């Protein structure tokens, strides 16, 4: 239960933050961020050490990991709250587990705030600063704060429930979509299938594969936001990859009366083959959607001094210079006059995450006419 605390005097000098985490790298990152903000930092690598450090030198804030061997963060928090003065010290939980159960346990243990790993220094500083400043509030302001915090906690609870539901729905959608694709393939293996039915089966299969890409994009964007996308690098045959991607999207291109072409000036690309293939499929599908009829969408893979440049160009309306960063955000909405170039889905956001996972970058430039989406991967 959230509870109002009596106001305390402003801590004199630099505030002290007790960082409790059994991972040395996490401790080092938090210490560096906090010391840059002129905080004094005490490190404890276990729950027992945290209690000793708290009693020896009562800090102004505790940054507390959840999962630790022996005494976990929840027990440490409860034990601190039972110490003299422990009920007045803000405790910020830090955990890699982004789920409703962990959030609820952090609140019930007496936590004041809840941060998820990986640690983002800027966010960490804002939360710790806010927690320390709240100690200086009057009783009346504290009551208002408790109301706002309850509302914030309710919103956080709803967000975690929504994320869990989305995860379940996305996982459950994969099987029926894959089944649609398999049934379409079975139809296409029938040599006696009439041309019109064959064309419909090809379109069904292409739409099923497009839907599966969107589902996988949604899953991977969630992973990417939690720092869980890891590229498994290997040498990828550039020519074979380009041919396979263009062949996979040939039906969609024909339906839009657009032609696909590809050129390669390098034998291999060092990348995660599955992730890179999906990036190219997303970029080419996006180009087909915006290309005028009777034009060509081109995929080029070129070796450069600082890596490999993959470029997908169309002859459409292009992307205004002012919107070329925004278009890689989820569900980016451009100005009404540029509605033809809205990013209605997650494909481009996924492409940006994959580029970053490879240590590369992605951007859009003029194709004169049209737009060219460029992905540079390091050698």
Task: Write up what this structure looks like.
The protein has 379 residues and is α/β, with parallel strands linked by helices. The protein has three domains: 16-136, Response regulator (Rossmann fold, 3-Layer(aba) Sandwich); 164-225; 234-377, Heat Shock Protein 90 (2-Layer Sandwich). It is 48% helix and 18% strand. It contains eleven helices and twelve strands. The protein has helices at residues 24-36, 47-56, 73-81, 100-109, 121-134, 139-188, 195-225, 238-248, 250-255, 273-290, 347-357, and strands at 16-20, 40-44, 61-65, 91-95, 113-116, 234-237, 259-264, 268-271, 296-304, 307-313, 361-366, 371-377. The strands form three sheets. A five-stranded parallel beta sheet has the order 2-1-3-4-5, sandwiched between helices. Helix 3 (73-81) links the parallel strand 3 and strand 4 (91-95). The radius of gyration is 26 Å and the shape is elongated. Residues 1-11 and 335-344 have low confidence and may be disordered.
């Amino acid at each position: 239960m959230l509870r109002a605390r009596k106001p305390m005097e402003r801590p004199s000098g630099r505030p002290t933050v007790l960082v409790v985490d059994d991972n040395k790298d996490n401790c080092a990152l938090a210490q560096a961020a906090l010391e840059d903000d002129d905080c004094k930092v005490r490190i404890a690598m276990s729950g027992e050490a945290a209690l000793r450090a708290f009693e020896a030198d009562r800090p102004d804030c505790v940054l507390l990991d959840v999962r630790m061997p022996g005494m976990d963060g929840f027990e440490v928090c409860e034990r601190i709250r039972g110490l003299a003065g422990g009920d007045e010290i803000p405790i910020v939980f830090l955990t890699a587990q982004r789920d409703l159960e962990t959030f609820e346990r952090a609140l019930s243990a007496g936590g004041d705030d809840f941060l998820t790993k990986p640690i983002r220094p800027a966010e960490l500083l804002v939360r710790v600063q806010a927690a320390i400043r709240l100690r200086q509030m009057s009783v009346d302001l504290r009551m208002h704060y408790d109301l706002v915090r309850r509302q914030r906690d309710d919103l956080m609870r709803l967000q975690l429930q929504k994320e869990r539901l989305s995860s379940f729905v996305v996982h459950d959608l994969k099987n029926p979509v894959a089944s649609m694709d398999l049934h379409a393939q079975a139809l296409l293996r029938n040599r006696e299938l009439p041309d019109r039915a064959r064309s419909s089966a090809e379109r069904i299969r292409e739409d099923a594969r497009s839907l599966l890409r969107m589902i996988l994009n949604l899953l991977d964007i969630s992973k990417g936001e939690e720092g869980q996308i890891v590229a498994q690098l290997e040498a990828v045959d550039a020519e074979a990859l380009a041919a396979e991607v263009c062949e996979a999207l040939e039906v969609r291109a024909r339906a839009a009366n657009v032609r696909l072409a590809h050129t390669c000036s390098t034998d291999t690309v060092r990348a995660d083959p599955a992730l890179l293939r999906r990036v190219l499929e997303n970029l080419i599908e996006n180009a087909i959607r915006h290309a005028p009829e009777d034009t060509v969408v081109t995929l080029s893979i070129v070796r450069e001094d600082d890596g490999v440049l993959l470029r997908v160009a169309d002859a459409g309306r292009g992307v205004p210079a002012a919107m070329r960063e925004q278009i890689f955000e989820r569900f980016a909405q451009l100005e009404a006059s540029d509605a033809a170039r809205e990013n209605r889905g997650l494909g481009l956001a996924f492409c940006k995450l994959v580029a970053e996972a490879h240590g590369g970058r992605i951007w859009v430039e003029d194709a004169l006419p049209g737009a060219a989406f460029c992905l540079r991967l390091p050698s």
